[in-house]
Amino acid sequence: MGNGACKNTQGQPEIPQKVGAEQVSSIGEGLCVLLGISRDDTQRDIDFMIRKLLNLRIFEDDSGKMWTQSISDRGLEILCISQFTLQCILKGNKPDFHLAMPADKAEPFYRDFLEQLCKEHGSHLVKDGRFGARMQVHIQNDGPVTIELQSPPSSNDPKEVGKAGKKCLFAPCDGRDNDFKTSGSIGIASLLNRSEELGDTAIHETLSNIIATHGATSASVLCHKSCYSSYTSRSRNVKRKSDASNSQPGKRILRSKVSAFEYSKDCLFCGLICEPKDPKHPERWKPVKQCQTVDRQGIPPFRDVILSKCDERQDDWAEVVALRVNGVVELPAADAQYHTKCYNDFRKVSIDSSASDSCKPVDSCLAAVIDHMDVNKSFTWTVSELHDVYVVNSGDHCRKQMLSNLCDYYGDTIVVLRVEGCDTIVGFRQCVGKSLKLVKQAETSSADDDVTKLVRRVRAEVRNIPLPRQYDLGSFRHDKVVQATSPTLLKLVSSLVSKEGKVTKPSLTLAQCIQQHISRSWNQTTLGLAVKLHHKYGSSELVQNLHEHGIVTTYDEVLRFRKSAAKYTSEDPDKFLRAVGLERHIGPIHSWGNNFDLVVFTPNGRRTTHAMATQFVQNPAGLLFPGGATPGGKVMSLKLPRLTKLEAGKLSIAHKSSFVIEHYTGPKKMTPPTLKEVPRTDAFQDAIKQSVSRAQKKDAAWLSQLHSSPLPLDWAAYNVVQDRNGDDSAPKLKTISVFGPLLDSPPAHPDTVLSTIAYLDTSLRQLGMSHSHITFDMQLYVIACLIKWSDLQRWSSVVLRPGMMHTLMSFIGSIGQLMNSTGVEELVGASFGGLKSIFNGKAWPKAMRAFRMVVSALLHDFLEEGEKTHEQITAFLEKAREHPTGRLWVDCFITPTLIAHRFWRAEREGDWMLQQHCLEEMLPYFFAAGHHHYARWITWHLRDMQYLPATAKDDLYAGSHVCRHSDGAAAVSGDMFGEQTCIKQGKGVGGMKGISTNPEQVAVWIQSFGICSYLSKSLDEIYDDAEAPDKTIKPNRHKEEGKGRWELDAEDRAKILRVLQENSHPLTIETLTLHHIINGQVADEKVNVQDALKIGQDMSTLFSSSLPERFHAPISNKVVTMTFTKKRVKVNAKIICDLEALFARLLVVGSKRRMELSALFDYELGPVPASIIDEYGCLRKGNKSVIIQRLGILAPNPHPPHVVLVDASQLIYHVVWPSSGTVADLAASMGRRLNRYITETFVIFDRYEQVSAKDHERQRRAGESSTEYRLSLTTPLPSRDKVMKNKTNKRRLGELLCTHSIGDHIKMVSKADSIVTHEEADVSLISYMLDAASHGAETVRILSDDTDVFVLMVYWCWKVGITCNLQMERWDGTILNINSTVENLGEQCRSILAMHALSGCDTTSYPAGKGKVSALKAMRVVPGDLLHFIGEEGATDLQITEAVSGFFLALYNERESASLNVARYDIYRKRQTCSTAGPPALKTLPPTERNALLHGRRAHLQVLLWKAADCPDPPAVDITEFGWNKKEGEKGEEIIMPILDASPVAPPAVLEMISCSCKAGLKPCLTAKCSCVAAGLACTSYCFCKGSDSTCCNTLTHSQQEEQYDKNVESGEEDEDDEVEFYDEDEFYDEDMLYNSAES
């Protein structure tokens, strides 16, 4: 079926269709479809054509973008007209319509087409003409756009071979598209006869089917004229010569089977492209020749030569070449070409070696050479001489081929001597020795004989090795693999690939891979590697590819192994248990169970489901030698019967399981048994004290060496070194681990946990354990405790323990919760990314490293004094606790960080008593931080452990609760070991890839998991040296001991210390207020987080005393953290601090209310303009030094300065601050730094007026409550930070320094001496620079690193046109040439001050995510006249608004937007459309126009002050008129804060809908009375019901939570511990979760 679709012009009223004078139908904008129906069209063609018509994207969208929408998208009309002439083919100049469907069949077919089109597009949108009538169609074609559509041919329709898409009968072929012809009945008859002669069954069957389908008279086929002529011409076809002696002719390659070929591009012989010669790499070129037309006398034509060679070869290659040669009339006319090498190779005709010498076929040319040699046997010839004889007799072979044919004919009777640089010599063996001395034949072939002997020996050895008939897991050991390998082969390969012929991993692998091909059977390496790869990556393609390269066994063998393992473990679990081989006399045996993510890749996509994984672990108790920690022999002797192919195909184990599934019928919630606290004995207390004291001493020593050792080591490396140097002689052997079976059931379901406990308890008892130690993650531990409590008698010997790794994660999250909004985020962020995962405990190793580095920075000054003991560190911290900020940082950060490290030390050393003590210390933090789930259950765990029987405690005292990956390694907790071994096996990129969710296949994967995991792990150890009794533990070198890691640690610590030194130090602040150490924000009076430790201890004591009756009682949050100080908005009496959450909620509400979202973005949508103000109401800060890096030009040969100007504040920070010294000592230090300059030098101070805009930045850096000191000439100076971070202290210090003389040429400029009265030293420096330049100074140099100074120098150099040399010397000694920078920037200097102020400086905000590089780009595109108003006296708000809007639109790349409010919506819409991560963050949007004006006023004030540098006095301004507000502090001082727009954060209609106020009752949020339900919204934490499952009945809330859970699972973010952490007890034991396994 074919049609043409024409697009009607938009705006045209109609496409009229007339029959005679009558108008039948018409449409407006839409498609006019001309439908041509072929005689072989079917319903499949209708379906295809309608689908294409309705989805063809040929219309524009609303923005005018073409080719984006279909007629279905636009809802336009279709006019359909039947037109049989579309099926026309030409016979000469006459059209032929025999391919069209006859009218009697076409009309009902057309009606079916229309009916289906109406059904899918709408009958009111489909119009048609009158079938079979002569019509007039008036089409107004838009574009014009005319699309030709053709339905695809049926692959099994023989007629389509000659019809569809003008496809040649002989395709693939080389005919041209304009060379087609249609052959009727006569042509088909000729082709049939010719196909019979050639034996071409494919063409013959195709033609016969066409005749049978369409009849002999009406049948026709389409083919190229050249193809038809070539096929039917007998002179152009080579027919294989039949040999009378052969009863069966050889198989012929048919033309239809030959791949596509182009004579002008491809080689005539090999079929590959003839590449042109590359002049850069001529050596890579394969020489190419063209087929010539010249016929020399005596030499046959090239065509005949090739065809004669085809007759000689009688092989498939000759058949293909003959078809190509006969495909054209003349090879030169077709521009045929070929590779010279391919031509020579083709001419080499092999002689049948099986024939005797007397019957070898010899051509006449070669016979002439043979006769010549036989007559002169005593002669010797060069090959050139013999080839001359050959050519004279019309031979056409090259010399090499001729010589090869001679050697084949004579065999060993002739000798061929090849000498480099000389022609090859040929002679008879019995005669050539008279003139030449020959080497004995035995010597020349000895190497060949040696190889032959070696091959025979290897083959014999391989034959003597028994082929494996079953899967022996005991053979996957080093010694067994060596025994199963040919010794000769292994020695040979080892000698080739390793030094001294040592058997290594590569040599053993290669030897076994080679042996696989000799024996034709798998072995340990080829099977083990294949199973390991499939188990890890789940890719059958990977295994099959490696098998094709001879490295691993087949994929079928892998599947057979899996099925054999699955059958073994499912049929008799007891047999598998007996084969596990763990024995109690070796050491205590523990078990572990956890959620296992099953990743299933199916044709429908990727799906993750969950199962219960189990594992048995055992720490050898000294009965095994180091390196020999392997099970007692049974696992290593486990033999799996190998299923036959038939058995594997019929395997059915879906109904079998290693577990006996039990159903839990106990209560959903119950009170724990009564366990009173057991008083600890004095001996036990002393043992704990010793463990704690030992750990504290190690931590103190580690902290001290960070500041005293030349090569300080981080915590892990330090402990490894201490272990290595210790005197502990007891060997610490690696843990034996065996994977148990998987249970394909939701892990958190009580039935699953009950069945797992029963299986593990039975297994451990059979292994000889008196008590069953079972570890679960917290979520499963809770359910396991419930099961144990329900039947204490049955489970009396079961010891349940929660996973300690996840406990540590929750504890780190508690630290992050308590320290939120204190400044620790900024300290950690100086060196680390991913802060969210650090502070919530997800990335706990990174968090531990970050926290200990911050602790090191906090104690830096104290530890610099010398090595400290734990008692000295404790005394120092106790003193710091006297003030609220210090108490917060000591109690909620430093102390818990050290507890976390002691806890992990207990795990790595296997010290159970220390672990229990650390858990007790953690409890107050769990309570205080609101981690009540861990607080409740860790309290129970500690009490439960006190009641353990002595035998169970002895196992834990021995350290059996931890695991080691290798001999001598540090231990890890049991759940972490399981994650790194068992769970790691299932979290690769594979999973069950390629395996559907068919129950049988899933059962095979699950039941075989344990054995496959064991085999995968064994393969890692298979290449170790043979075990020896005298093997000792080698010391492990930790990765953190390396130089690279040491340098990285030092760099990270330095970054954190630098940020801390630039802000207020929490341990040295002596104020009575609690504040943020970075931005100085003072805590609200309701904040009590500084007392969190005391509150947590009280909560823990109260909870313990209420047990067991109030075990499940709700625990309230009593600690108020510093997040309460964040800027917030009150909505329906609900305070909201989370800017992004509020933003997302407002967008949802706005869309639900069907508001125009563009109008919503006229509001800020947050309590602060997040792009320029942070959540505390302070200006956002960024990095401004990039301007110097981008614009600064180094002075290659700087002139010596005549005047030097110095920023006093920066100078103070770059000299040595005297310890316990006076102002005189500091002045002397400053003098020593400046004495290098011999010219006039001015040191300029800030004036520090009462109130200025810069006070806001000073307060942020110093903290709002910095201490004032009574400084004098004789009193010792406090620390530098205490002086420099207080405005009063700095002013007093400047006054004192100005009384000192530090050099004859150095002048300390005081207030009285200054020639200007500007407050900022930056502006005063410029004033002095202008003064020096105006008085004839040739070179003026300013010593400063400040970006503001650099920008001011550039602007004033341009504005004044300074011709003297201006230099800026940075504190690292580099000198910048300001004149060159000005010359490079040109007129852009005019806008540089406005750009710098608008993009962020000390008194203005840095737009979030927009750095100085983006600002420089924006400056280049914004007209200078627009930015010129910034800083000009008399500038109006309208001019400032235009300047700010123009700059921000360019900064955010939205210059086409009409305003900033419009740009906000445009940015949101674009990112929402292009991103899959949801809406953009609020801070990535520019501020609204109202807040942008306030930002512009602050920038205008700053530039106004900068532009007054040429005046002696600054302009008299009131900062409250320029976007600043004054407020009174707690001590009566004035505090400067930026003014924010007071407009509502969103439209009132939206704010009313942001939350509901449904009170808790029988069924809150169930009816339309709830505002969330009425608006179709889910309840959230902003609502009174908090959106909780236990208190909220809004169905949308639950569906949204389930949808979010599914998204988390798909993205891999779901973590069951997080769920538990925030569960309410009633919610956790929900009936649906407990009993509806299908829904779970």
Notes on the protein architecture:
It contains 66 helices and 37 strands. Helix content is 44%, strand content 11%. Strands 19, 20, 22, 23, 24 and 27 form a 6-stranded mixed β-sheet that branches. A 6-stranded mixed β-sheet has the order 32-31-30-33-34-35. Strands 8-5-4-1-10 form a 5-stranded mixed β-sheet, with helices on one face. By secondary structure, the chain is of the alpha/beta class. The longest helix has 27 residues. Strand 28 and strand 29 form a beta hairpin.
Please outline what is shown here:
With 1640 residues, this protein is an alpha/beta fold. 44% of the residues lie in helices and 11% in strands.
Percent of residues in helices comes to 40-55%
Radius of gyration: 45 Å
Care to count the β-strands? Answer: 37
Instruction: Please give the largest β-sheet.
Output: 6 strands, mixed
Strand content: 5-15%
Which residues sit in consecutive blocks of at least 5 with pLDDT less than 50? Answer: 9-13, 155-165, 235-257, 351-361, 438-445, 602-606, 622-635, 1025-1035, 1128-1137, 1599-1640
- Tally the helices: 66
- Class inferred from helices and paired strands: alpha/beta
What is the end-to-end distance?
52 Å
Q: Summarize model confidence as the mean pLDDT.
A: 79
Shape: globular
